Amino acid sequence: MTNIAFIGLGNMGNPMAANLVRAGLHVTGFDLVAENLKTASANGLAIADSALAAVEDADVVITMLPAGQHVLSVYGEVLEKARAQTLFIDCSTIDVDSARFAHGLAAEKGMLSIDAPVSGGVGGAEAGTLTFMAGGSDEAFKLAEPILDPMAGRIVHCGDGGAGQAAKICNNMILGISMIAAGEAFVLAEKLGLSHQALFDVASTSSGQCWSINTYCPVPGPVPTSPANNDYRPGFAAALMLKDLKLAQDAAQSSGAVTPLGASAAQLYALFNAAGEGGTDFSGIINFLRGQEKK
Ligand code: NAD
Questions:
Q1: Pocket of ligand 1 (CB under 6 A)
Q2: What is the Cα–Cα distance from 280 to 56, expressed in whole angstroms?
Q3: Catalytic residue numbers?
Q4: What are 26-59's pLDDT values in tens digits?
Q5: How far is the CA of 221 from the centre of ligand 1 (A)?
Q6: Which of 8, 45, 204, 236 has the fewest beta carbons under 10 Å from its own?
Q7: Are 216 and 272 in contact, with CB atoms under 8 Å apart?
Q8: Distance between CA 3 and CA 198 in Å, rounded?
Q9: What ligand 1 atom has the least distance to the C-alpha of 240?
Q10: Tell me, which fold does domain 166-290 have in CATH?
Q11: Whose CA is nearest to atom 8 of ligand 1?
């Protein structure tokens, strides 16, 4: 049987690992937070008392951690002790440079690795319907695919090491910008006396259509399942959107890409977060835009 070590059992990691257990895989987990280990144990994971102990007998090591520094620190800790040819799968959302560095560390020790960040949030993690964006060699991807499958709705091989992270931040930069665009359009419509439903009926079926309007409409009413109908509870928290927009800006800077709208979106979400709204769904930015209007 494949032995999996799962390191980072937070909001995403715990339900993802639970789906691996449900699929009949043997999963040993580690997290720094005791409460998360309790949940993991209740979900059927074996619990290790360190990251190092978790990887000892592992064929596959999955990490789901907050940021690049955590991934590099865990890789630094465990790579020495992992069995040769262990497959390392990092599902965290981290900066492209750290992702490439992590691939390099793994390769130096004779390990296979992929970066495989996800979209779909906690709901997708629980339902096993996450979209995985993978970067790494064909050989590593082929081995990773059946491991990711119980957690996935869709798995896309985006290219070499770091390509998964690149796809994730490019996609989320579009999302951040388009949500602000949708919010601005609804606020302008209000000023012009146009109803939310009328703008939705036109924009969702013509050239303004996008996920931020059609699926995740930032005003209550037109799309009953969008967080706007639930007091803007996440969904996808504004703090995580800001994180991804900052990662996109870091990548734009280090690669020399020009992303003026991405930069503006990052600034607006930084202001929204600074106003204490980091825990609000990111579509709540429309209320922040309304609050900025000229008196
Ligand atoms: P989280 O903070 O709930 O979980 C991260 C976990 O990592 C925590 O439990 C923490 O204790 C643990 N951790 C940190 N350092 C560790 C170490 N050295 N050893 C072991 N455990 C350690 O975060 P999350 O919401 O689960 O997100 C995880 C990753 O997934 C992030 O990179 C995030 O950007 C990304 N992501 C989150 C969502 C979402 O909706 N929450 C969606 C897509 C992607």
A1: 7-13, 30-33, 36, 51, 64-66, 70, 73-74, 92-93, 118-119, 121-122, 236, 240, 243
A2: 40
A3: 168
A4: 999 999 999 999 999 999 999 999 999 999 999 9
A5: 33
A6: 204
A7: no
A8: 54
A9: 34
A10: N-(1-d-carboxylethyl)-l-norvaline Dehydrogenase; domain 2 (1.10.1040)
A11: 10
Domains 3-161 and 166-290 share a fold: no
DSSP 237: B
Distance 242 CA to ligand 1 centre (A): 15
Sign of CA dihedral 234, 239, 240, 244: positive
For the domain made up of 3-161, give the CATH fold. Answer: Rossmann fold (3.40.50)
Tens-place pLDDT, residues 174-217:
999 999 999 999 999 999 999 999 999 999 999 999 999 999 99
CA of 199 to the centre of ligand 1 (A): 37
Number of C-beta neighbours around residue 161 at 10 A: 23
Q: What is the pTM of this model?
A: 0.94
What ipTM does this complex have? 0.99
Place of tokens 């999955």: 62
